[in-house]
């Protein structure tokens, strides 16, 4: 499983760490979790993974430029080869995150990816329940990939 993230803030970092913790829970066996910053993830990384978790802040009503760059780099090289693969995503914003959610849903629909868990969207400082939801997101998508 590939986790692609842009974590420029303490809130995004906390969400990312919770997602990773869930995805790497010892009860989930046989799933290798690879983590790449959005600006470092490549088409070969996407092609090598069986599922994906995406994390981004909401910047000016849209995903971060880093995650958009990731999608721009992998969209056509991965379009036909990754259809049907499961994914999940998490978004943090200081106010509205709906534009970011819509953009991610549009792009992943175009790729033919299947959403395996509800998105985790958080505005403001993430609380304990928010981070628990991030942990569940990571665990859910990873558990769905177990052999």
From TrEMBL:
InterPro entries in UniProt: Flavoprotein-like_sf (IPR029039), FMN_Rdtase-like_dom (IPR005025)
UniProt superkingdom: Bacteria
Lineage, broadest ranks: Bacteria, Bacillati, Actinomycetota, Actinomycetes, Pseudonocardiales
SUPFAM superfamilies per the UniProt record, alphabetical: Flavoproteins (SSF52218)
Annotated NADPH-dependent FMN reductase-like domain residues: 33-96
Protein name: NADPH-dependent FMN reductase
GO molecular function: oxidoreductase activity
């Amino acid at each position: 499983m590939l986790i692609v993230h842009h974590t420029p803030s303490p809130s995004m970092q906390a969400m990312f760490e919770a997602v990773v913790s869930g995805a790497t829970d010892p009860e989930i066996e046989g799933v290798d979790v690879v983590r790449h910053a959005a600006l470092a993830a490549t088409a070969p990384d996407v092609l090598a993974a069986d599922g994906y978790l995406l994390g981004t802040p909401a910047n000016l009503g849209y995903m971060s430029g880093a995650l958009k760059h990731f999608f721009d780099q992998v969209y056509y090289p991965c379009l036909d080869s990754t259809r049907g693969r499961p994914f999940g995503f998490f978004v943090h914003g200081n106010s509205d995150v709906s534009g970011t959610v819509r953009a991610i849903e549009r792009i992943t629909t175009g790729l033919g990816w299947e959403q395996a868990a509800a998105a985790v969207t958080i505005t403001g400082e993430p609380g304990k329940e928010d981070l628990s939801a991030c942990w569940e997101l990571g665990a859910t998508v990873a558990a769905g990939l177990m052999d």
